[in-house]
Amino acid sequence: MKVNIEIDCSPEEARAFMGLPDVRPLHDLYIDRMTGLMKDGITAGDVERLMSNWMPSAASGIGEVQKAMWNAMTGGGAGGKKD
Description:
64% of the residues lie in helices and 0% in strands. The protein has helices spanning 11-18, 24-40, 44-54, 58-74.
């Protein structure tokens, strides 16, 4: 048995029906802040702060990838040659 249900509604109507919050005010605030940063000129420090907030483990993750690559190239770590 196959049943198809088609619902024709806007995203706003679907969000209200499912009881999800309206995040438009938060989104507008975020866009205004980003627009202000772009107009005022964003500095390297601003980018670094944003990236550390958005991806706090990115720096350590990159370090881990570099370490794994180094171990793979030099034969160190798991799978390396043993004497």
